[in-house]
Amino acid sequence: MTKKRRISWIVFFISVVFIMGNAIYVIYFSEKEEAPAGSLLLERDVSVGARTLKRENEPISPIRKPKNLNAGKVELGYALFHDPRLSKDDTISCASCHDLLNGGVDDTKFSVGVDGAVGSINAITVYNSSLNFVQFWDGRAKSLAEQTAGPITNPVEMASSWQQVISKLSADADLSDYFIRVYGEKPGRRNIADALAEFERSLVTPSRLDRWLQGDNDALTPAELRGYNAFVSHGCAACHQGEGIGGNIYQRFGIMHDYFANKGQISQSDMGRFNVTKREEDRFVFKVPSLRNVMLTAPYFHDGSSETLESAVVQMGYFQLGENLPSGDVENIVEFLNALTGEELQR
Ligand code: HEC
Ligand code: HEC
């Protein structure tokens, strides 16, 4: 064989190996990418992270345990959360409306405060509230500590004042000592709010979805996975996403169809973020709620108008996405939402 022919043979051989390699790559991988939607989820990408198998390209991210909680403050916050002396006539505590054994809410459309006064907006759970970018449906409180002043002074909730609360708590020698041990000072507006906020930061609820996101393939049932697939493919995750599965953006309620025209009678609370900013574009705009523990927090929406999760999902499909969701998808999405309940809260 001449030198020239030997080189051509080598070039030919390398080309064959290269083409075959490419062909195998294309057949193997493009087939995976084109798998029908139904089967996608069961094998949804599991990329190998540094140490564990994690699903990293999902619109929802796994919940993180709170870091550096001060145990003394959390304990004090827990006591304050359950203390009716935060209300005008010592009848109502935070827990009256945010029952921790009941998903962090009451079961009513509108909460009942001091003297039987009825509010005008549905209670939001305190679980995972630390993940929200702002607090309340209309985002009027920027932090958990700032939020506490709301219920304490709200005439239809605790109807009290900071002055009253501080003087009642200071008169309790044991509690005062407790404050001095934890904060080095007597009860005051700042440390009461801080202890409540620290306690609320402890209320995060890891769920089966979080285990699945971290690579545990058995954490979700096939129906829940189909539900997750429907949730993502219909576009729910465009608004309900991130670590809180909501709670990180504002959106108008009624994007594709007019929810409020359908509703008829409109209240001040229905104005949403407009009540805070007075800007026309903020009318009917709300903080997208977190869907964690949503199974436990009926009724739904800021106006408590939806009694079941099924109907809330159907309405979301219609008003936010302009779709009449197929009933099978609704069923599966509800199954999926069930997997967002904190494993410690599961009844
Ligand atoms: C009378 C019932 C009632 C009481 C008492 C009450 N809340 Fe609430 N809570 C509500 C309602 C209703 C909302 C929703 C209000 C809104 O968004 O305008 C809410 C919202 C919240 C939120 C916002 C959660 C989010 O995702 O935006 C937090 C946090 C919270 N409450 C904590 C507390 C704390 C702490 C106390 C005690 C100091 C308390 N609540 C007392 C009814 C109550
Ligand atoms: C364009 C943004 C957007 C999209 C898309 C969207 N949502 Fe929502 N979702 C919201 C907003 C805003 C609210 C609060 C509405 C209100 O009560 O004023 C909400 C409320 C909800 C609630 C009630 C939560 C509660 O605690 O009351 C559920 C359940 C829900 N959405 C599920 C879904 C599902 C399922 C989909 C997909 C079919 C979806 N959402 C699509 C923005 C969106």
Please describe what this structure looks like.
It is a single chain. This protein is mainly alpha-helical. It folds into 2 domains: 71-201, Cytochrome Bc1 Complex, Chain D, domain 2; 208-338, Cytochrome Bc1 Complex, Chain D, domain 2 (Orthogonal Bundle), CATH 1.10.760.10. The protein is 42% helix and 3% strand. The chain contains 15 helices and 4 strands. The chain has helices spanning 3-33, 37-40, 71-81, 94-97, 144-147, 149-153, 162-170, 173-183, 189-201, 208-213, 222-234, 259-263, 274-277, 309-321, 327-338, and strands spanning 47-48, 53-54, 250-252, 285-287. The strands form 2 sheets. It has a two-stranded antiparallel ribbon. Strand 1 (47-48) and strand 2 (53-54) form a beta hairpin. The protein starts with a helix and ends in a 9-residue tail after the last helix. Residues 29-43 and 45-52 have low confidence and may be disordered. One heme C is lined by residues 231, 234-236, 238-240, 251, 253, 255, 286, 288-289, 291, 294, 297, 300-302, 312-313, 316-317, 320-321, 333. The site of one heme C has 26 residues, from helix 11 and helix 14.
Mean pLDDT across all amino acids:
90
The Cα radius of gyration reads: 26 Å
CATH class of the largest domain: Mainly Alpha
Biggest sheet, spatial arrangement of strands: 1-2
Total helices: the number is: 15
Look at the helices and sheets and give the structural class.
mainly alpha
Silhouette: globular
Shape-level CATH architecture of the largest domain: Orthogonal Bundle
Percent of residues in beta strands: under 5%
